[in-house]
Write the structure tokens for this entry.
Amino acid sequence: MKNYFVLAAAVLLFSFSATAQKYFTKTGKISFDATTSSSPEKIEGVNKTSTCVLDTKSGAIQFAVLMKGFLFERALMEEHFNENYVESNKFPKAEFKGAISNNDAVNYSKDGTYAVTVKGKLTMHGVTKDVETPGKLVVQGGKIQATATFNALLADYSVSIPGLVADKVAKTAKIGVDCSLELLK
Amino acid sequence: MNKRTINFFLVLSLLVSTTGIRAQDDDLLKLLGEEKPKKERIKYAFKSPRVINSHSMEFLNPGTMDFRILHRFGQVDQGYKNLFGLDQASMRMGFDFGVMQNLMFGFGRSTYKKELDAFLKYAPIRQSTGPWSSPVTVAFVSGITMDGLPWADPSRKNFFTSKLGYYFEAIIGRKFSETFSLQVAPTMVHRNLVATEATPNNVYALGVGGRLKLSQRVAFTWDYSHVFIGMPDSGYYHPLSVGFDIETGGHVFQLHFSNSTGMNERAFITETTGRWGKAEVRFGFNLSRVFQIKKNKKHKE
């Protein structure tokens, strides 16, 4: 009987510690760049209100971003992005759900820079695709800086570029992630 | 049930509850809680700040300039002799500027009557969603026109103010869905000088404009003004324009048929002489090119 209580206590402790090992941000930066050599201007947008949660225990990592939150240098580009390309009203959110494959290699309690591989599913414009990318985690003073850059083929996500501007917009968008994660209490 | 079994279930339930916590890991983002709904402005009700002739409920983005070249050709009923009106053209060249998301101004000049016009447009209420939202956009336009023709009768004493006309307009519009937008616009036009004593100086009209999106880049638009008070007895008609907005990258082409030649409020509301029923309509197009004159630095650190 005593054993059961010890077990229960252990399980409880374990679960409490598990919940305390999540890091998050609501002001993560996600950018994309679809500029090609023949683009007349830079085609890039930045979203600084992305949310991200990282479970250091399991290595699970998730992102969510509101498409309308992408800001552009040119208002017309922003309009075309929302209205014609990603159809923000129909598909307001993009999400990534995945995990750090080499989570064991990261020592979250020790400051340092760790190279990681993130694998998961990216949902954008109503289409879900597998994504795998190298990334970097910088653990410093109880905070985690997570950065990664990867390419997404626009056609994979049914984002169609009209023929008239086909040579001015890159077929693949370079997506950059830069999030400063804090401990979730 | 003995004590042992009770304890067993106690532990089991604890285990289940803790695994329950761990199962939530599937959706880590839920841990951050639901975002409170924010007030969000409904954008892009019309492709352009003009429906066809009339001002639309939409505004230019701050820091942009819209260079507009408008053409109205001759009446279609002139037949092949004048290539269905294409041999003649009347135009207006205009520059509109976006100051704030709800404030813009512009000016232009038309070949018709060599008229200059300028306007200021402001929306106290924009259609939005979320808390404290409004189902409609309410905008006000105030404009002035100046006739550039020589005096009709140079022998009489002429005043500069006689060249001027004014218009005041309220636009109430709503983007009902992604594809359908509709607006009504009560308008008053005042002319300082009119041709005859019987012609009223003030004209009151109600404009109805709409857009039906046919595809991502093509929309069907219509723009009608019904003149209630101040319409002369003969020779003048209510202006109606129907057409298509075609968007190609940086340009918006508005191709349409209209029974009016005038391209400012004074001209098309009070001086439309064509009849749709008699094919006295004209082909016309508006070309709108938006330039970013002040770049948005919001996305830079």
Q: What stands out?
A: Chain B has two helices and 14 strands.
